[in-house]
Amino acid sequence: MTMIDQRPDRAGVAPARRRVTPPGGRLHTTPPWWFAAPAMVLFAFVVLLPSARGVYYAFTDWDGLNPVYSLVGLDNFTAMVRDPDAVQAIWHTLLIAVAITIIQNGLGLVLALGVNSTIKSRNVLRVFLFAPAVVTPIVTAYLWRNLLGPDGAVNSLLGAVGLASWQQDWLGDPGLALWSIVGVIVWQFAGYSMVIFLAGLQSVPKEIYEAADIDGAGPVRRFWSVIRPLLAPAFTINLMLSIIGGIKLFDQVYALTGGGPGHATDTLSTLIYKDAFTLGEFGYSIALAVVLTIIVAIASTGQYVVLSRNERAAS
Amino acid sequence: MRTSRLAAAAAILTAGSLLAACSGGTNAGSGTTDTQVLTLASVDQGSIEDVIEAFKKANPGVDVRFTTSGADQYQQQIRTQLSSGTAPDVMSVWPGNGNPGATYVLAQPGYLLDLSDQAWAAKLPPAIKSVAQYEDKTYTAIFGQNGIGAVYNQDALDKSGLTPPGTWTELLSFCKAAAAKGTPAFALGNQDNWVTQIVLYALVATTVFGPDREFASKMEAGQATFADSPWTTAMDKYLQMEKTGCFQKNPLGTSYEASQTLAATGKTLGIIQGNWVVALLKGKNPAGKFTLKALPATDNPSEFLMPAAAGAGYGVNAKAKNKDLALKFVNFVMSPEGMNLFVKKQGGLPSLPDTGYTADPSLAELSTYITDNKTVPFMDQLWPNPKVQQTMLSGLQEIFSNQSTPDKVLKAMDTDYKAGS
């Protein structure tokens, strides 16, 4: 088997990509586009067409049940602007997405730098830190719902170590509940970000660290000028995943607070669910879903453009 | 080139066979329709299983394919199935209006079969008939009824040396005394927003419907509102109970599940809930003794009313593949055998009189209130749309967390009520 060396050479110029010649003698080129056709056909039928049909209902007053409905133009979208619950939900969605993106990735990076060291227990630590990410979010959310209850383990622990004044109504206080949700998500997925950063860190050649050491760079300088640029692809993946995950967050919010108390933790996704399935306002909830899709598209595209520009600048 | 064409043909064949496989899955059931197979979707997990077994025993050779799920999931599922023509023959349907799986909501577009000519339909008591019907036709076979009140844990009461209060003033003293002993009077799980309404309903029954049994009709006729009625008194009393320490600390952070544990294990003296909670409390504390009593809302016990209403029942799909068998099942549920089996398992009371059912002693007071016609339906069952209730539920959470006031919430409920169906 012929290996392709894609690492930059010492002069910083990547070697020209060589074609691989298998024993059969035929050349491997890029596979023909129609290899993707079966998958594309399925995707079109299962995802694209139903989604497009779904968007149509955003312009109707359909209640999800009655076969008779009428077109209402942009009424659902104008109603959204006047609906304080929807405006509040959009704000909560953005707040949670930004908070998760910053805190989860910040913590993930610190953990990755920690377990990338030569300490003896690093493998055990890696497993422990990543473990929460492999559990279904709804399960961890129900677990935390109990832990964060007024008589739950968190308050009991605080009481046991003499910090009774720190005990809080974590999920029942409207000022705290949103941050408790952020905390639970960060707890679960910081290890996931860590793994992606760790993969990036481990692909940095040792020679580069050695060169930085020889040039007299301290730990901060080494991180900022050497590690950070080389981690640019890991940043792109992590930030994209967490911002998209944060914007469309549903399971954890629904299980932890159900959007309450009142509407204090409602996100666009929980509001879409309630409007559709509790209130039977399908047309309106699909309009909300269209707005959610647009927000995800704008946020992820914008972020991708900026981050890939950074990647190019760093390489 | 030949290879490419072959590969393209293979790709198309693969896609074609995949699509064929998908469509085959949908049709697979229709070819094997058997007159002896009934399809059923239910929310009565834990009790429907026994009823199905008894039905199968009474009708040898009959098979029942059924699914059970929680109310939220069920309502989402049944609406999709009905609108796409894939709903089962028999399905759970809620009484009245006000939720996405309610009689009015499903009967209005013509999804339910008219059951008016079934023998039991004429025997339903008026209060239950009104919520089983849509435009004077009966669509829902309601087999049981439930009530709301204060459920006391007898062991905890004995330990505290207190006795259940008989008047509103006694209730407040009871709460103060219980709180002083470190065992709050009632557990309240307001984190689950549907729970927030239960105490309010218990208070509204006496304060609103006590002086005026026709209040719901007046609302419907536009002659009364929430904000300018004794609903404000009920709200104030709810908050007064909270301020007096009737409930444990942080009800908004306490789930329904956690509140059951508090009441079952004697960390509170009781819980204000529906009779369905008795079975759940016994599940958590099998040795415990629990009794349901009316919640005092005034100082005159003769004025007390209890909220008691029809529980979810069963409707027949207007397009049922096996209508005869579906009717047979619904009639079995409404027979003394089926009905008693159902309510015994659920811990409720039968909807029809004379079924020979002996109520659990814990429900004796509720049973008397029903017999004496001292009950009012759950307030939401005749509201014109589900939004009124949702506004109330989130509003109550907001009041408990100082984000809103009773007046604001009642006015918002009036706005939603006036928006109609």
Describe the 3D structure.
Chain B: It comes from Kribbella caucasensis. Chain B: InterPro entries: Bact_solute-bd_prot1, SBP. Chain B: Residues 1-20 form the signal peptide. Chain B: This is Raffinose/stachyose/melibiose transport system substrate-binding protein. The complex is a heterodimer of chains A (315) and B (421). Chain A has helices at 37-57, 75-82, 84-115, 122-130, 137-147, 153-160, 174-202, 206-214, 219-230, 232-247, 251-256, 268-278, 282-314. By secondary structure, chain A is mainly α. The longest helix of chain A has 33 residues, at 282-314. Chain B has 421 residues and is α/β, with parallel strands linked by helices. Chain B folds into two domains: 36-142 and 311-351, Periplasmic binding protein-like II (D-Maltodextrin-Binding Protein, domain 2, 3-Layer(aba) Sandwich), CATH 3.40.190.10; 146-309 and 376-418, Periplasmic binding protein-like II (D-Maltodextrin-Binding Protein, domain 2, 3-Layer(aba) Sandwich), CATH 3.40.190. Chain B has 17 helices and 13 strands. Chain B has helices at 2-27, 48-58, 71-83, 103-107, 126-132, 154-160, 168-180, 196-207, 215-220, 231-244, 256-264, 276-284, 323-333, 336-346, 364-371, 386-400, 406-418, and strands at residues 37-42, 63-68, 90-93, 133-134, 137-138, 144-153, 186-187, 270-274, 290-293, 306-310, 313-316, 349-350, 375-376. In chain B, α8 crosses α10. Mean pLDDT of chain B is 88; it is low at 1-33. Classes of the chains: A mainly alpha (315), B alpha/beta (421). Chains A and B meet through α1 and α12 of A and α1, α3 and α16 of B.
